[in-house]
Amino acid sequence: MGVLFITRHGETDFNRESRVTGSTNIDLNEKGIEQAVKASENLNFKFDFIISSPLKRAIQTAEIFSRKYDKPIIIEDRIREIFMGLFEGMKKDFIYENHSDLWAKHKNDFDCHEHNGESINDTVKRVYEFLDEIKIKYPNKSIFLVAHAFVTRVITSYFTCGNWDRSFEKVRLGNCEINKFEF
Fold this sequence. Notes:
Number of helices: 7
Low-confidence stretches: none
Radius of gyration: 16 Å
Largest sheet: 5 strands, mixed
Distance between the termini: 6 Å
Structural class: alpha/beta
């Protein structure tokens, strides 16, 4: 049996400022680095290797775990965060006040591209394809995966019921919190 441990990268300034980050490639802030170091020091499980999103904040988090446990990192584009188009970098309050209709459409129409970003269904499809692949490729491995808020929700939906629905928007994995799934 394989095991997948997932974590969300450490905090960034966009997280702290309540901005939509999406695929914007930003660094961890000081608190995010501290979160990753603390999480790496408190692990109570072993893993064979790390798979990370290609975005800097995920790679920086993965590197902290890699140095601590001397494990290789595999970069995987299919677990990068959803591209949020015109919403990227905007404060959430600004979006709610100025783009509430478009925001609601993106959240409720899983095929919506009107925000010039990636649809929810497009993201779910690429993440699910990746998960299908690792179950075949690494059936008896213990994998530590570093990703993002939305991607961790998609992974949770995959392992708990096998399809995406709005209920998973409420799933929250905090910065450097860890969840475990067996496959």
